[in-house]
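Q: I have 173 residues here and want to know how they pack in 3D. Can you give me a structure?
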Amino acid sequence: MNETFAVSGEKLLEAEDIIQMVGFVLAGELFGVDILTVQEILKQMPITSIPDSPDFIEGVINLRGNIIPIIDLRKRLNMSKASQKDVEEPWTIILNVGGRVAGFIVDRVTRVMKIPANAIQPAPDMVLSALKTQYISGVCKIDNQLMAVLDFHRILVVEEFKRMGAQKRQQDN
């Protein structure tokens, strides 16, 4: 992965005005996450399934003695399913979000980018590529493409996971 200045033509004056983002791709769309939340980036690991969990929870992995839940980000965000040609070998980004560590399966990781804080605009009030804006904290232009900055605090809402698990158990009965 390369570290680059993502927004050209901008003067980078103060270090605190720069946000480092890890870029990744899902369903052909570019997304970003603040590098400060990223613990690790891994190639796929063996995942142990968990019964009675929501569909987007693939299971758990044992990472150096720590049990970490793994979430399929495509499923969590209700995005189109990947075809075999779209994703040859998916990646897992391990994030620490508010003290909760979880892994998120993505199609591929692109690069680390330095982005001026003022280049990130508020999320629009519309659906961006079938993705609900409740999960987007902002957008910015990278080269000639829009990058959506995801809010993993909203994606990783444990109470919602519990409610979904209870609904699934009721449907199964």
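Q: Anything worth noting?
A: The chain has one domain: 3-172. The domain at 3-172 is CATH 2.40.50.180 (OB fold (Dihydrolipoamide Acetyltransferase, E2P)).
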